[in-house]
Amino acid sequence: MSLPYQSRASSEAAVSDMIAANRARYDELMVAAADVSPLVLPPPTALDAAPIMPADIRHRETIPGGWYWTKTLRRGEGLRLLNTSATLGVSLFAWNAADTSERYNSADTVKLQWTSELRKGRLLFSDMGRVLFSIVEDTSGAHDTIVGGSTPASNARKYGDPALRSTRENMLLAAGKHGLGARDLAPVMTFFAPVAVAGATAAWRDGAKVRLGEFVDLRAELDLIVAVSNCPHPLAPDAEFAPGPIDAIVFRQPEPAPNDLCRTATPEARRGFDNNELYVQA
Amino acid sequence: MTEPTVQATDSKPFFAAPGLNTVEPVYDFTIPANRPWSRLIRKGEILRIVDLEGCQAVDTLFYNAADTSERYSAQDTILMQASPYVTTGTRLISSQGRSMGVVIADSCGRHDTSAGACSCEANTVRFGHQTRYMHACRENFILEVAKHGMTKRDIVPNINFFMNVPIEPDGKLAIVDGVSHPGDHVDILMTMDVIAVISNCPQINNPCNGFNPTPVQVLVFDTATV
């Protein structure tokens, strides 16, 4: 692959040659991405699969409905979000613990993977072309990072009360506990939220249910500060604000194998992990 | 040439937008290809962005001029409209859930606010490590927000005017050929004093700029005189 060039070409013929060369490279990448999903990604994890050995658990905590939780995770550690109440959405945000200007980037996450369907085998990217989390287990494959989390305004519209707990305020609180603030927040990832875009409309999938015992296992790929907000997704079909508890479990995971699914599923994943490798070596 | 997989739908004005006399803007500037721009725009002023040559992504952010920790929020905007696309009638919502502006006219019909800006770092993942040393929107944004005392920390997922990123029901998402024509424009009536920040996107590795970045025009109109 030759180095693309960016300066404005001088003649009309040179411009069309440049456009044709640039387009050909992009078409190649798009075709390659279409071959990946969802064919080579495994089906969702069974609810009773992927047990965690008690000896591997560093921390386990129940996050009450409506509340938030924050923790520093070491690179390689696992975080299980276990939906013990079939609550309708749990939001997550994360920062690089060593430099909090690097943080979860929803736009890069969907753009780099050519999909907003984040499921087992997919990654959560930072704004720096690096991987924050790998999704190593996932029982549903139905999550959302396009619409995000609840806010005082969305609670006012949906439940008639802006004072109810919201993901926006939870994230501000979680950020605050690390000396961070409004400038450190950005769009979030919301698990257990089967939201899809059809036509020009983003909506909760018709009739989609969140099952009791759903879980997602994330592997921290850098040392991270993670914030979790246990508030329902703003498009969830709940008429009353009644979020149930979830469990957050921090656990030791084995060193990823050379053929680790998340690290090798796509060329984009491999290049993202190249960037992680360069960073942690430095 | 790849055909776009989704055509933009006709946008219907939700109220009669004022006809703007384009010879009487209070401000008129052409942003060269690849370059950043920013300006304070007052509540009640209308920002018009013109895609002069067509198919040019215009990466745009808004900050509350009185408190820049309040800024454009893509997710709040998407939630408010229940749509991932920006067009006539879209209210642009801040991180505090407040209206920053409303799109009152749009001759293009669809703009993206899910796919964010390009960066040198993300380019390495998307297009290969050989693209690291190419100019990118993130670079433009860092330089431009610095003029207002802000840093990378203040940069969030933005609006991409004139960029076409259809999202399919299975989540599939790609930047495809633009649907804007030369001279297409979008008008935003500001409902808050804002600092508008633009990166005239320099990306040539995907179709967001027709693989050939071109200039765009920004005009500001005072509603008291239109």
Structure description:
The complex is a heterodimer of chains A (282) and B (226). Chain A is built from six helices and 13 strands. Chain A is an alpha+beta fold. The mean pLDDT of chain A is 94. With 226 residues, chain B is of the alpha+beta class. Helix content of chain B is 12%, strand content 28%. The longest helix of chain B has 10 residues, at 137-146. Chain B is globular, with a radius of gyration of 16 Å. The N and C termini of chain B lie far apart (41 Å). Residues 1-11 of chain B have low confidence and may be disordered. At the A-B interface, helix 1, helix 2, helix 3, strand 9 and strand 10 of A face helix 1 and helix 2 of B.
Q: In brief, what are we looking at here?
A:
The complex is a heterodimer of chains A (282) and B (226). Chain A has helices spanning 12-34, 106-113, 152-159, 167-176, 261-264, 267-281, and strands spanning 57-63, 68-73, 78-82, 90-96, 99-103, 123-125, 131-138, 189-191, 195-198, 201-204, 215-220, 224-229, 246-251.
Calculate the terminal CA-CA distance of chain A, rounded to whole Å.
Answer: 28 Å
Radius of gyration of chain B: 16 Å
Molecular shape of chain A: globular
Straight-line distance between termini of chain B: 41 Å
What string gives the helices and strands of chain A in order? HEEEEEHEEHHEEEEEEHH
Average pLDDT of chain B: 91
Number of helices of chain A: 6
How much helix is in the residues of chain A? 10-25%
Q: Oligomeric form of this entry? A: heterodimer
Topology (SSEs and partners):
The complex is a heterodimer of chains A (282) and B (226).
Chain A: H1 12-34, E1 57-63, E2 68-73, E3 78-82, E4 90-96, E5 99-103, H2 106-113, E6 123-125, E7 131-138, H3 152-159, H4 167-176, E8 189-191, E9 195-198, E10 201-204, E11 215-220, E12 224-229, E13 246-251, H5 261-264, H6 267-281
Antiparallel strand pairs in A: 1-13, 2-12, 3-11, 3-13, 4-5, 4-8, 4-12, 6-7, 7-11, 9-10
Chain B: E1 27-31, E2 36-41, E3 45-51, E4 58-64, H1 74-81, E5 85-86, E6 91-93, E7 99-106, E8 111-112, H2 120-127, H3 137-146, E9 159-161, E10 184-190, E11 194-200, E12 216-222
Antiparallel strand pairs in B: 1-12, 2-11, 3-10, 3-12, 4-9, 4-11, 5-8, 6-7, 7-10
